Amino acid sequence: MQPLRRPAPAITRTGVTAWLRQRVRVGLPLAIVCAWLASPTPAAVAFGAGIAAVGLSIRAVAASHLHKNVALITSGPYAFTRNPLYLGTAAVAAGLLVAAHSWTVALLGAVYLIAFYPAAMRSEERKMRARYGSAFDAYAARVPLFWPRRPPPGSAQFNWSWDLYRRNGEYQSAVGVLAGIALLWLKTRRWA
Q1: Which of 31, 69, 126, 156 is the most exposed, having the fewest neighbouring CB atoms within 10 Å of its CB?
Q2: What distances in angstroms separate CA 133 from CA 4, 11, 128, 143, one per listed residue?
Q3: Planar angle of CA 115, 129, 169, nearest 5 degrees
Q4: Is the pTM of this model over 0.85?
Q5: How far is Cα 109 from Cα 86, in angstroms, rounded to an integer?
Q6: 3-class SS at 179?
Q7: Best CATH choice for the domain 15-190 from the list 3.30.9, 2.60.120, 1.20.120, 2.70.98
């Protein structure tokens, strides 16, 4: 399917947009607190790393399809869910929370995800609807917002692009997750 192209309208900052920009400002200190409170075990780190790897894979495939602010992408992982990057992020977060092996950390992580990500998805929906109009409405009618669903045959064409993966900066997610897993693994060694 050919990407649909339409010039992007100017999007003004709203209260929601300002709130969403706090995601990073809150996320980094929260990650430090969670690392401090974590009680990882080797088994928890190994199991959590596996879950996080699935999330990174989802994000990598999605990033390798994404032409940010240029085209409405409806193929590959975007044929299963409108938000494969957020789905991958949720899996990465679940993996890191499992690796942390702490109910307190799991609760803090869940609150963070619930506080920011539904609003982020709604904000993205508004931007996409403003940019692509009825083409986005038709896409939204057949593809779920978050939880993946099997698409009609032939609609999920996967084409990997290292250039898009790199341009979308997805390698930074992989480095961050590897650093988090390494930190938790070191914590198991130091206090074992």
Answers
A1: 69
A2: 11, 15, 8, 16
A3: 60
A4: no
A5: 14
A6: helix
A7: 1.20.120
